[in-house]
Amino acid sequence: EYIRGSDLKTAIQQRGPINQRKVAEIGTQVCQALTVAHKQDIIHRDIKPQNIMVQPDGNVKVMDFGIARAKNSTSDKTQTVLGTAHYASPEQAQGKDLTAASDIYSLGIVLYEAVTGTLPFDGPDAVSVALMQVQDFPPAPHEFNPNIDPDLEIIIMTAMEKDPNRRFATANDMRLALNNYLAGRPVSAANNGFTSAQTQVIA
Length: 203
Fold this sequence. Notes:
The protein is mainly α. Helices cover 42% and strands 6% of the residues. A hairpin with a 5-residue loop joins strand 3 and strand 4.
């Protein structure tokens, strides 16, 4: 399928931080796509802004299921593939079995980058970035973008929890939280919101 529009990474590189409501709208659409995939037991494994196309009408397409793998498949070849380190979940960086929670983490990083214009973790090579995903806590988004809505920040940081069990239980739960933010309703995250300790780098 030929898709008109530009990928989200290009938009961030050209414009810097994107309007936070627009980011939330993009997030809800990606969550919808992931919900469909996850219900089929398919984990995307490489959610990143380069794989999210924003069309002129605002519709979003999630692309490149190239390293996606059904949960019950046993291909060693795909098991060793590590998506893109900047967006890889801690468990993906450690080579563990992946669940839907891994895609939720990656989407959290995509939204973080979209609202701040910067990546939460960066380093000289993929290995160092992967280690940061496992060991380090990111700066809070408001340190880069003081205007970010606290509710949106809580959604992003909940998706980026190191422990998969502390993230949103499903992509649909994350979609509902984003919809609540967009509608001005109270946001209920997977936990009671992140703490300052979760945004400090471990010494």
